[in-house]
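Our collaborator T.R. sent over the components below with a one-line note: 'Predict the complex.' Nothing else. No constraints on interfaces, no templates requested, no preferences about which chain binds where. So this is a plain run: every listed entity goes in together, and whatever single assembly comes back becomes the starting point for the next discussion.
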Amino acid sequence: MFLQNWWYTTLLGVQQPASPPLTGDHEADLVVVGAGMAGICAALRAMQSGRRVMVVERNIFGGSSTGKSAGFLTPDSELELSQLMRRYGAAGAKDLWSVPVRGIELILATAQEHGFSCDLNRQDSLYLGKGSSGAEAVREEAESRSALGFESTVYSKEELPRVIGSDAYSGGIRYSETWGIDALRFAQQAKRVLLDHGVVVHESSEVVEIGDHLVRTHLGSVRAAEVIVCADKLPRSLTPHADNVFHAQTFLSISEPLGDREVMEMFPGDRFQCWDSDLVYSYFRLTGDNRLLLGGGSAPTTFSLQALQSTRVINRVVNGFRNAFPALSRVRFVQYWPGLIDTTRDLLPTVLRDEKSPWLHFVLGCVGLPWAAFCGDFAARHVLDPGNQEDHHYYHYFRPTRPFFVPLSLEGLLGKPLVFAMNNAWAKYVQVDRTT
Ligand SMILES: Cc1cc2nc3c(=O)[nH]c(=O)nc-3n(C[C@H](O)[C@H](O)[C@H](O)COP(=O)(O)OP(=O)(O)OC[C@H]3O[C@@H](n4cnc5c(N)ncnc54)[C@H](O)[C@@H]3O)c2cc1C
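Returned assembly:
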């Protein structure tokens, strides 16, 4: 198993020239900083407005979390429905659940409208309980879905082997309208659409300063009426809002293509995208060419400051999978890669218009491609046509001043990893917030 992002491998041979870096001084009506799923969706929305739009990306389109992701398109990115129900009540949970649902619809509509070749496969989600607490988590999820009128199918431990080739799980819940995607190919093809519609695109262009309506990179600058920042791992020197975001580490691996028999061993019927109920969960699905994509992490390394390159954690994840699926123990994993997912303290995104500089907008800490897609599009809509938007209230959910368990001021004493770990766990398992 060697260290390389599989999605980069799938890009090899694709005719997609890199866009040049920003050099010299320019003007635009709207600049989007960062071309992950959020920035791409912001730019796609702005592209339709007739304004002069520019995207400035440090790496390549999709070159950070988006292009490293496992490509599960499910509303259930990190916060389960039952957790949103506890925190916000039924109405709030339904309101928030519709954010990633609309994000998925946006991604699908874009891919379908422009005919993207991005390994988009319909795959029902299967959330798998482990042990007695896992069975309880499945039951809570089923109750929440039923309370909100969402369809799902629940499997007991005894029923599960009908749909998945393992007896390691204590129960499962299945639901539809979820997909798998190669998000790096999506991002690169979205770049082509933007270029075709007159959007100016610069890759290899790190924004190093944001002044009064002015965005500077190492080699150039652009003056703009409005700026939407959808960048990850921002340094504090660019904005104090960076304090609201940290990152969680996860690892992914990919196997050689499975044979028909192995696919049948794994999924006797339909193919699913799966994850389990562990706090640091494992997740897996099949790609279009039957490769097994398997990911996970470990509690001690989740909030590591740097992306770890060693195989230690992913080997443990692979061994856990082999124990759960003994019939697949001979499957060979060929590549692995780590990734740092930007997250806020409560796993909801932070989206705001800067109070002191109202021309400056931020979309930060989106955990999950669907959340990022919605939030980028949301920010662009509210910049371009604020008077005609009916979902202004999401600014309230996503404000940086919403309640958190441990304040940022304790970082000096406890350290950022601990403050984020405590807040994340609180938001997932305890927090109740009916003030929104
Ligand atoms: C290994 C891994 C697996 C994952 N699996 C899934 C999954 O299966 N399903 C799911 O929904 N989510 C998954 N995620 C999470 C998901 O990828 C992210 O939540 C999502 O991509 C966030 O999108 P974004 O646009 O907000 O951020 P990003 O994709 O991080 O985009 C931010 C962009 O900003 C650019 N940038 C940063 N700083 C600057 C600067 N100064 N100047 C210019 N550009 C800058 C970056 O290069 C980057 O391209 C996974 C993440 C990882 C790392």
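Summary for T.R.: The mean pLDDT is 94.
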